[in-house]
Each structure stands twice: as structure tokens, then as C-alpha cells.
Amino acid sequence: MRLEKCWFCSSTVYPGHGVQFVRNDAKIFRFCRSKCHKNFKMKRNPRKVKWTKAYRRLHGKDMTQDSTFEFERKRNRPERYDRNLTENTLKAIKKIDKVRATREAKYIERRMTGKKAKELREAQKELEQNISLVKAPALLKEDPSLTLPIKVKVSQKQPEVQLMEE
Amino acid sequence: MGGKCPHRKVKKRRLSHKTDRRAKFLVKGDDMVYDELRKTDEERKSLPLDEDLPGMGQYYCIHCDRYFANVAVRDEHFKTKRHKKRLKQMMGPAPHTQLDADLAGGMGMPDNGPKLMSV
């Protein structure tokens, strides 16, 4: 069983999923879903479409260089079956997956630092520009039409249900 | 490519969908053209005489993968915006391939095993 990558979005194509297009020069294009197939037919460049992995890699949105990327490879050679090796590989897959997930999360976290200052600046600017929309509390008292209709909570005493005991 | 006429004078007449669809399957892909351009002159096949193509298939634009009726028309094509755009595109980075997709998807380079002895 071989898990291929989608030509357009680089997601994994599992057996029985997606479509593949074989061009008349025998080149194979695999697509994970009709969305990717359609985008290919429209002759879109995956490097310019923001949701693809190719774009994200190219623009530094995702982690690019990491030792965990070296494990998953297309191996074009037969491997003799070895029970122990298989068992160890299956164990390693889980571990590597975890390592990669944490590293990726860390990368994104590092990439997002400095965003807070930017958001604060934008919020301050918006406040400065639209300060006229904010009404003083004294004015709201005078003209009730400016306020939203107030919903009053009806407090009911509920008998305490004790389901968790026993 | 086909079916479109950018200089159409009569605005109401629409594109010809039939020629558009026919041309879609005949035009070479970007990566094929890109590879063709990287070849040296000797590697490229000389243009064979083909009576089905315009100008017996002798006046060809590699970048746009188009045949023209004569030299004058081809040279006129070289001056067009579409051709220049294409020229620029082909000068740029190599088109996206399956290998690029694999690498972006978190895979390493393909492992072909140790090289066989060449005797």
C-alpha cells in the first residue's frame, strides 16, 4: 500500500480516494478530491494558491527544515519483511508524529510573536477613528433609544439535583 | 488559447467553446514547455513537414506551443503581449511538480537504494 501525496495540495491520498490524471506523456497527476482536480484543470499554480502546502512552505508559514521530514520517503526498492523491524517502525511512527506536532506548534508560536503588538496598534487606530460612535453614559440616560433593549434575567431557584452521588 | 479573440471588434459574439475545448487537449503543459526550452538545439527535434499544421508545421513558437502560417505571422506573434508574458513566465522558476508536492507534504527525497554496479 502506498500513500501518495496530492499534486495540488500535498495532502495524503489514501487508497480508494481521489482521482488521478495520466497525461499523454505518461506523467501521473494525483488529486485528493475534486477541489484539487478542478484547480488543476483551471491551470492554477499551487505555489500561488494560499491554502496549499506548497504556498505555505514557500512563504515561511510552515516549518520547512526539520529532521522529522527525513523519515517519510518514497522508497523505490523492495524491503525484506522483518517482524521486529515492522514492530519497531510502528512504534517509531507514533513517537515521530508526536515530535513533529510539538515542533510545528512551537514554530507557529514563534512565528506569531510580535502579532500582539500589531493587533494592539490596529485596535488603537480603530478606536481613534471611530470614537464618534461611542456615546457618553450621560447621553444614554437622556435618550433611551440609543441603548439596546435590556433583557432581565429571571432567577429561579432550582432544586439541587444530586446525580453524581451514589 | 483557442476560442478566444482578444481583439474582437464585434462585442456581442462570444467565444467559440468548441474550438476552446478542442485546443485545451492539444496545448502542451507548462512543465513540458519548460523542459523543452532547457534542451540544447541538437536535442530538439527539427520541425518535420506536416500538412495538417499551419504552414506545414515549419513556423513554430516553442514558448507558446503554436504553429504559424509563415514567418511574418510568427514574427508578429513574437511582438504580442501574450507571447511576452509567456516568455517571462518561462524565464522564471521551474513549474510545480509532483516532487515539489511531496516535499511540501513533509516527505524526504525519494530513496532509490544503493546504486547498482555498472559493468
UniProtKB/TrEMBL annotation, chain A:
It is found in: Nucleus. It comes from Ziziphus jujuba (Chinese jujube). The keyword Nucleus applies. The keyword Nucleus applies. This is Probable ribosome biogenesis protein RLP24. Keywords: Nucleus, Ribosome biogenesis. Belongs to the eukaryotic ribosomal protein eL24 family. SMART domains: TRASH. InterPro entries: L24e/L24_sf, Ribosomal_eL24, Ribosomal_eL24-rel_N, Ribosomal_eL24_CS, TRASH_dom. It holds the Pfam family Ribosomal_L24e. Its main location: nucleus. Residues 6-44 form the TRASH domain.
Automatic annotation (TrEMBL), chain B:
One of its GO terms (cellular component) is cytoplasm. GO terms for molecular function: nucleic acid binding; ribonucleoprotein complex binding; zinc ion binding. Residues 84-119 are annotated as: Disordered. Residues 61-83 form the C2H2-type domain. It is found in: Cytoplasm; Nucleus. GO terms for biological process: ribosome biogenesis. Keywords: Cytoplasm, Metal-binding, Nucleus, Ribosome biogenesis, Zinc, Zinc-finger. The keyword Repeat does not apply. It comes from the Eukaryota. Pfam families: zf-C2H2_jaz. PANTHER family: EXPRESSED PROTEIN. Belongs to the ZNF593/BUD20 C2H2-type zinc-finger protein family. This is Uncharacterized protein LOC107431907.
